[in-house]
Design goal:
Largest sheet of chain A: 3 strands, mixed
Number of helices of chain A: 13
Strand content of chain B: 15-25%
Shape of chain B: globular
Number of helices of chain B: 10
Distance between the termini of chain B: 38 Å
Helix content of chain B: 40-55%
Strand order of the largest sheet of chain A: 1-2-3
Oligomer: heterodimer
Helix content of chain A: over 70%
Order of helices and strands of chain B: EEEHEEHEHHHEHEHEEHHH
Distance between the termini of chain A: 81 Å
Number of strands of chain A: 3
Largest sheet of chain B: 6 strands, mixed
Order of helices and strands of chain A: EEHEHHHHHHHHHHHH
Largest interface: A-B, 30 and 33 residues
Chain lengths: 384, 270
């Protein structure tokens, strides 16, 4: 029936002015396939047809909802419904079609149409909603941090309620399983930093200070920052997806109705596991990064391993390591809390799980970098 | 033992399933299954959970390639056709999935307008008007048109999905448990809607269902799938009288009897 479009456009309607009142003769196929042609016909007729025009439907071959809807558009839904009664000789199915479409449209058109919005108010609305969301989210995060700390404080005093199995399982997932990727990435970045340093420092004849550049940058910044960003992507998203899918399957509600505390059961083991894993992984990242730098120094800059080590010992103070490590627990706590909180914010659908997983990664990376920047400023002012 | 056709005065067959075999690994879902769907009828397909009702539906609409056997829709084997020819056939049927399967990134009206724009060749304005007509036909209030599917209740999602299935004025409608998960009032309203639309649009309906009330209210024929084939197909009273443990338990269990009484009362009232 869709092939009908190739046929020469038949004349679908004709206004016979010879009779009084004028008679509109509808004929041909009034179907979806001819929609454009029918619309064209109607455009001509619209102004010439009024409530007094009589309608002759005898010439109609095929009729579907599209045709009926167009007739309703021309004649009005009420008129269409009445037409069903004026054509008693038609097969019942076709009259039922006219009547159903007429009745449905009549009802539909009586309902108020929603007002269209203008662009400016939409823009303002979006800005307002976004600002409010940001505020609410920050508020929720602070509240959740407080709740986590409170649960932590209560739980620490009662070793019987420590979830050791869960904790160990999470440490394995978060820490052990992430060792290869963290080590490899840090090694590569260490090598890149060394190359970069060597290129710039060679101009001053100071290639040897590449050692300092690599060691200090990795101890203070890159070791912990790289690990935190990797875990924000790897672990925060996993937390959100795990807790979120539990939320959408009402498992969280089940935990509550069983008189258990989801904070204690789900959040604490995850937070503690990340608090254990992230510093350890950071340490590993520092080692791997310095090793990567050392490889470049040894193979590309002709600095012997012995010289590398003696430079490292002479110039790199242990405070750099402490300053870097000091940030690790803070990052760990925030990443875990954001991951869990976004999981709890999931509502119902699978789509919501996806949205919140994305949001948790973005938020935790954002928070990690902002805190790192603030910490860098603070340490500089303190002269550490 | 399968005798789905009542040969003589039956209207033309629009879906013809012959010797259908579906196997997933070691599990055989259908074994030599035969089924006919006649033009203009509402065929209810029932069977226990996991008896392969939905698999049958998926085989007929061409979403699943059967292990063996033939499925002919409008006399054509969908899986043997060229992509273009197949798409032309597919436009002639509408499918309502169990959970609606509305596109979540589009509004309700856009969901209905999509096939009209893609296949009907309508411009956006005309498609929007026709989408409004379809939404009116399925009895959705006007303000739902601009909502996203996630903002709708279960019954509304089913109606919106039905509007999308009806967008191109299909000849056959495939419904996968349309009343599952609806409250009894919405379910009854959906049954009535289905009857009205079938009568007005001359649809053929292939209805997979668990709902006994739906069977008694709307179905012209019922096919029972059991033991990997169509055990019996025919008018409800014939099927209900079949001597088979499952059929007896299904139609003459407490729920079956209640549905039968309700249908009788409904028939007396009207």
């Amino acid at each position: 029936m869709l092939n009908g479009m190739t046929a020469p456009a038949p004349n679908f309607a004709e206004l016979d002015l010879a009779t009084t009142p004028a008679c509109l003769r509808i004929r041909g196929d009034w179907t979806l396939a001819h929609y454009a042609a029918l619309e064209h016909t109607l455009a001509d007729l619209r102004e010439r047809v009024d409530a007094h025009t009589s309608i002759d439907l005898d010439g109609v071959d095929q009729l579907d909802t599209a045709g009926a809807a167009l007739l309703a558009d021309l004649l009005g839904a009420t008129r269409l419904r009445d037409l069903a009664h004026e054509t008693p000789h038609w097969p019942p199915a076709r009259r039922a079609l006219l009547e159903t479409v007429g009745t449905a449209l009549n009802e539909y058109q009586r309902q108020a149409q929603p007002r269209p919005h203008n662009t400016l108010s939409l823009l303002l609305e979006r800005i307002g909603v976004a600002t409010d969301n940001f505020y609410q989210q920050a508020l929720q995060l602070l509240g959740f941090i407080g709740l986590t700390l409170e649960t932590l404080a209560r739980g620490l005093l009662r070793p019987r309620r420590w979830r050791m199995t869960s904790l160990v399982a999470h440490v394995e997932q978060i820490g052990l399983d992430a060792v290869p990727i963290v080590a490899l990435l840090s090694f590569l970045v260490g090598a890149v930093v060394a190359f970069l340093g060597a290129t710039v420092l060679a101009d001053f004849g100071a290639s040897i200070y590449t050692v300092d550049l690599v060691s200090i940058s990795f101890l203070r910044e890159f070791g912990v920052l790289l690990t935190a960003i990797l875990l924000a992507g790897r672990t925060a998203s996993a937390f959100t997806a795990q807790i979120g899918s539990m939320k959408s399957r009402e498992e969280i509600d089940a935990i509550r109705t069983l008189g258990l505390d989801p904070m204690e059961l789900l959040v604490l083991p995850r937070v503690l596991a990340l608090l254990i894993s992230l510093p350890l992984l950071s340490f590993l990242a520092m080692l791997a990064g310095i090793l990567g730098g050392a490889m470049v120094c040894i193979f590309a800059l002709d600095i012997t391993p012995a010289m590398f080590l003696s430079m490292l010992r002479a110039d790199t103070d242990v405070r750099h390591f402490l300053v870097g490590m000091g940030k690790a627990p803070v990052f760990a706590f925030l990443i875990a809390v954001i991951g869990c909180l976004e999981g709890f914010r999931v509502t119902g659908s699978a789509q919501s799980v996806g949205e919140h997983t994305t949001s948790s990664v973005v938020q935790s990376i954002f928070v990690v970098i902002v805190i790192d920047a603030i910490a860098a400023l603070f340490y500089m002012e303190m002269g550490w | 033992m399968s005798a789905p056709t009542q040969a003589s005065a039956a209207p033309p067959v629009v879906v013809e399933v012959r010797g259908l075999i579906n196997r997933f690994g070691a599990q055989t879902v259908h074994d030599n299954l035969d089924l006919d769907v006649h033009r203009g009828e509402i065929l209810g397909v029932v069977g226990g959970s996991g008896s392969g009702k939905s698999v049958l539906l998926r085989s007929i609409v061409g979403l699943l390639r059967p292990t063996a056997g033939s499925v002919r829709v409008f006399g054509e084997d969908l899986l043997a056709l060229s992509a273009e020819r197949r798409s032309q056939i597919e436009r002639r049927f509408g499918v309502l999935f169990q959970r609606g399967a509305l596109f979540s990134s589009l509004t309700v009206a856009e969901n209905v307008a999509l096939p009209l724009i893609e296949h009907g060749g309508l411009d956006r304005e005309a498609a929007a008007y026709m989408a409004g007509v379809k939404l009116a036909l399925v009895g959705l209030p006007r303000d739902t048109a601009h909502k996203s599917p996630s903002a709708l209740s279960g019954g509304m999602i089913k109606r919106a999905a039905l509007a999308r299935a009806l967008a191109l004025d299909p000849e056959i409608l495939f419904l996968d448990e349309p009343t599952a998960g609806l409250d009894p009032i919405s379910a009854a309203a959906f049954d009535q809607l289905l009857l009205t639309l079938r009568n007005a649009l001359g649809l053929t309906v292939f209805l997979v269902t668990h709902d006994l009330d739906t069977l008694y209210t709307v179905c012209d024929r019922v096919a029972v799938i059991s033991q990997q084939k169509v055990l019996v197909a025919g008018p409800l009273d014939v099927v209900a009288a079949t001597d088979d443990a499952w059929v007896q338990a299904y139609f003459h269990g407490p729920r079956g009897r209640a549905a039968e009484h309700a249908a009788q009362r409904l028939a007396e009232e009207t």
